[in-house]
User: Fold this.
Amino acid sequence: MLSAGNKDNVYSSVFDEESFAAMRKSMVDRQIIRRGVKDKDVLEAMMSVPRHLFVPENNISHAYDDSPLPIGYGQTISQPYIVAYMTEALNLDEDSIVLEVGTGSGYQAAILSVLVKKVYTIEIIGELSESASDRLQKLGYDNVEVKNDDGYYGWQKHAPFDAIIVTAAAGHIPPPLIEQLNNNGRMIIPVGGSFMTQNLVLIKKDGQGKITTRNVMPVMFVPLTGKH
Assistant:
């Protein structure tokens, strides 16, 4: 795994790695811990992953801002707090197998990578899928597998998953994802209309396969796209 201080960066920048490390610490302290995220492993992941390498070069100076950022093709990299909150809600451990729907630039997958055994991530936009895969490989996140496909249908080949995270808003909870969630697993997904306030929904499947859902907070994500 490449550290945040590795000099073989994907992008050049006017900032040095010490500056980025300070920005990450401020991001974690002010945006994430203050809002109630407590999981030590999640906080360490947010501290270790170089977010500035997952945003377009012209936005590097804003990489650690308290907001989502555009990454092209009408997509965004989520606000740091939302990334941390959604990750903590999945209750992950080092043996977890996780499915992510909506790879984007690969930042959420990188956060998951340092926490779990394996990450499978799906991105419907081919250019983003290819660039995210290259970026994750270059940065050493080698337990992540990226697929260019419609994430609504999940990734049956590798199911069941201990956790599923969806980083785009769906009009409803996709049934294939429910089916591919392992017993005692969790899924978190924004549900609602496009470009309006949605509900972030936490879904739990118990040991007998019974599903419970809970709205946890209002959010705003770009829409989940595909043939569904």
